[in-house]
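job 3f2a | input accepted
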Amino acid sequence: MTARGFLVCGCLVSLLCEFVGSHRMVNAASGNSPLENQEPQRAPARDGSATIVDKTPAELVQAMPELAGLEPAKSQEVLPEILKNVGAKVEDYFHNVVSTSAQEETIQERLGLDGKVEETYKQAFRYLVIAHPEKGPLVFEEYRTDEKSRTASGPLLRDTLLTEDFVYIPVYLHPVYQEESDFSYVGQQRVEGHKCHVVAFAQVPRAAHLWARLTDWFASYKFLLQGLVWIDPASFQIIRMYTELLPDATVGNIKEYTTDVTYGEVRFKGIDVAFWLPREVVVNLDLGGRKGKFRNYHRYSHYQLYTSQTKLIY
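job 3f2a | predicted structure (314 res):
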């Protein structure tokens, strides 16, 4: 496979992905770190730890309360067709991306050792997604601005991290990158009133071109991910996507890193295509030791088209 060579911004503390993207984090000390797609890196072979695709639906339901009510899959027969159709949808998703502006509300929480919230900090931003079609369908940048359209990360809750860049997460289901992960059909679950296919994925270390990198105040870590995808059975649109660390990943002191993104349909005047963009995001991060546990909430609303000349287009 030929590597796609470009840099874009990631998510969690600085999430650099050698896949097309994932997320990035901004912390109070450092700054941003991009996502990039590179040739496969040396990675440990799976050490026998069971990934999410190795678990039975019953095991997943027991481990993940959010799967309550799941109707377990009876076979994997439908999986190839699901991956083919959702892959085409994801390819369209990146091909059709346009520059947008949205209202973003962020809530940062610092958690105690018992998991209880010790501090909370709320902020509001304009969140921009700027497409660069001249560079390719997978190239765009995401950042925050203040009320005067100046780039802003905002003040942070002390010693916490502010996550961003969630638009790239569906790239794991892109036809080009599906071969880098194992998949399993978990079953169907009702989401917001209608049934969705639930598919699990886990990156395969020796096949992966897509790596995430997390940078905190003192170090930078590279890692692979696994997760769950909720897919509408009629349109094959991704409704929700959850990611976490691959179980045998060696990521320094990072004990937990999860991202849960819910997508919503957005339509713009004069454009026939419907866009499915992040609506709500929940990020959990445990950096271990004194750095502690954090949880970030992101809510996006009032999406509008955006150009550098005319600003907001209604």
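job 3f2a | DSSP finds two helices and 18 strands in the chain.
job 3f2a | closed
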